[in-house]
Specification:
The protein is an alpha/beta fold and 244 residues long. It folds into two domains: 12-146 and 222-242, Rossmann fold (3-Layer(aba) Sandwich), CATH 3.40.50; 154-219, Alpha-Beta Plaits. Helix content is 25%, strand content 27%. A hairpin with a 5-residue loop joins strand 5 (108-109) and strand 6 (115-116). Helix 1 (26-36) crosses helix 2 (53-64). It is globular, with a radius of gyration of 18 Å.
Amino acid sequence: MIHFPSFGLGCQHRESKVQTPTTVTQDEQKQLVAREALRYVVEDAWLGVGSGSTANMFIDALAASRLRIKGAVASSVKTAERLKAHRIDVEELNNVSDIPVYIDGADEVTAAGAMIKGGGGALTREKIVAAAAQKFVCIADQSKKVDVLGKFPLPVEVIPMARSYVARELVRLGGYPQWRMGFTTDNGNVILDVSDLAIRNPVALEDRINAIAGVVTVGLFARRGADVILLGTAQGMETITPHR
């Protein structure tokens, strides 16, 4: 197993806000952060919206709110369909020049704002919309917060003809890649899920995997990490602001 030397990702400032003394279930934690994320929505502007169960709860909360936005840029076909079902206008990123905020979940996130994403297979579009946005607000329940990334298998989107070659290169990095059989991304590619990695330097590993020929993108969000983490805990809401 390969351990990458640590580049400092910077110190973090935490601001904790306890909403209730009673125990909050995982679904309630997701609902908490979905509602809290509404505070970061910029009205009369475009909004980037991610994928997954927590992002879906945010979409539902957005639809029920009185917030007025120009419309949304979706990170997946499923997200676009859910937004449209709520009569929220969806626009292509190519037609939008300014996205103040992108709101999305994570499969794992550190206090420094580095994430693993792509469990649902939308990692490339998520990374593109996140890169285009001025602020990334990550919404997650407490089970997603980790000290070291890698317990959740790292998704890598790959051009189909390069699948075996990329898998061999990932083995050389100390990982154990598995083809997500029967799944095709919205971009027509395949995904390798890589386990057995302890990702102590996510920036270095992100760069290294992205440099492999045939890789479309890796589900490490370290170079463009979260600016704000809204974490639902068993005690209530916690806000973490990484300083990088």
